[in-house]
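Q: I have 672 residues here and want to know how they pack in 3D. Can you give me a structure?
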Amino acid sequence: TLLKESELAEAAREMAFLAECRPDAVIVQDLGAAAMMRDHFPELTLHASTQLGIHNSAGLAMAREFGFRRVILERQVTLEELRRMIPGGKPPLEMELFVHGALCCCVSGSCLFSSWLGGWSGNRGKCKQPCRRSYFPAEKGNGSGGFLFSPGDLCSLELLDEFRRLGICSLKIEGRLRRADYVEKVVRAYRTVLDAPPDRRAAALNEAGNILRGVVTRKTSIGFYSERSMQELIRRDAFGGSGIPCGVVKKLVPGGFEAEMSGRLHLGDTIRLQADSDASDGLNMTVLYMEKGRSSVLKVQSGESCFIRSDRKPAPGSLIYRTGESAADHSERVEHLPLPRPALDLQVRLERNSLLVRIAGCEAEYRSGFPELAPARNHAVSPDDLEKAFAASGSEIFAAGAVAAEVNGEWFLPAGQLKDLRRAFWSWAEQHIPHDLPAQKIRRELQRLLHDLNTESAAGVPFPDCTAVGRKGTAPGAVAREIDFAGPADEIILPPFVPESGLEALKQKIAGLLDRGARVFRITSFFQFALFTEAVRNRVTLKTMFPFPAANSQCIRVCRECGAAGVQAWIELGQGDYPDLLAHSVLPLEAYVYGRPCIFMTRAALKPGSGRIRDARGNGFELEKHGAFTELYPDETLRIELPEGYSTFRDLRNDAGAAGLFSDFNYSRGWS
């Protein structure tokens, strides 16, 4: 997720620790954090988080150019758009898709809903899920309320064959905050289908469906993968929380409450107690003690009454939802996992009569001579053969890290001789390489990175103040306008979400504006850098703006690397974050000081799709329909003091300042 400037040093230390641990990969949203790992800790494999919002082929190209090995695609991409992105089923880099579990209703990485209501940012993993609460029309007589933003859960078992044909390498199950029983059953269901031969696929789908029927979940669909599913994704009458109804609270008694059960319940199960009048997330607890007929019991069945011990005080009549089941304890299995070994990154070169192995971070190198190999008639030893062989270290001290190999010539190398060469190298390494060599290399790199982070930069002279206006709006000074009604004298605001089907049209609009003399473009999403060739970048000015997330100086360095000349500081920053960012920025900075930002956007069909709404706490919002998207705006207008050293960005596109409702967002309270 996103990092503040003041957190970069601590993050660098965490990265160094991870580099020693060598996880399979690190999932990253913050481009600054990704650049720190790419440039200083190449031991770490980078996966682009869904929060980075990559949703078209231009985004895939940027991710590959940056150095990501895998992209976890944005969840609001349809199956048809996916087919267009990957012609021939050959993605330009590894791709991972969400296939099961809870869905965010908002486009990933752009949601400010939770942050606006209390500073708890979904872009820092702290979302309070306001989308799961109920909302009502702001004025009586304008229809009924309900759970207007709460989608059902995703289940895409039926799409697995298509994902396989498209070359998708990894399937993602949303299992955070879920218990082990949920994860075990869902993984088993998907493996049942994935591992079934073609002639058993129908039976496997039926078996997997039976497994999933025992999983606590909301109503499922294929999510955003089809236009039809998007239309049915939100059920305003369905409570936003998950769970299987299993009883009702009859009355409170000392030490707990009495319940009448409509379904089974076991000790160790988790439950949620939800009153009809409660617009919040209800009361959550684990069942640790139950009585039936004054005797403690391990389980109760449908139709039975029981006492449940609890220090919570649910309202009589509250519904009881089972949200998780007791599961086996796997701690003993975890304790028996092998301890990690320090990993050596190798460069292996095979000649006709010798082998050379270089080790990253080490001056010593391994050389071995042998009688000349015979030319290969059929099966020459390949770099892949060498890499696979040396990746199996066989050492009790070292593991193999990244192995890169080359072969000079085409030679026949017997499998037994290759194994002997590998064993001889690892035996030599155990005797001649310091056991903490990988850690030494990482610590040296950490010190270099910390020094760089502590060095202040010169941001340069700020650009002139800018005002964003609507189609017919005017303002003094520099004016920014959305591309569909912008002129060549404007700063052109690019749309943050452009499906694959609209990418070519966007390129043509940009080309047309360039021909007419447009010279300033506003980047709102990472993919847009790919739309400007190096030659074009040299004759235009690129500036970032919300919802592009530039929250720290390392991200700003990435923006400069991609061709940006100016950056708008991330809109969620607190007052104390602005001076820190300015002191280390390598580009001129701009602050969003006035406007009503879009705090939520979705392709799901919302009902109502427009108009004013409020929550149970009296917070007011306005829904607006813009093409395929529904956007949510707060009643209040954001207004903050201009941080010193920044130019101003005023957004009048959705101005409601005349209403007299203002908020400084996170400026005073800080960004959590």
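Q: Anything worth noting?
A: The chain has four domains: 5-232, 244-324, 343-436, 466-596+636-663. The chain is about 25% helix and 25% strand.
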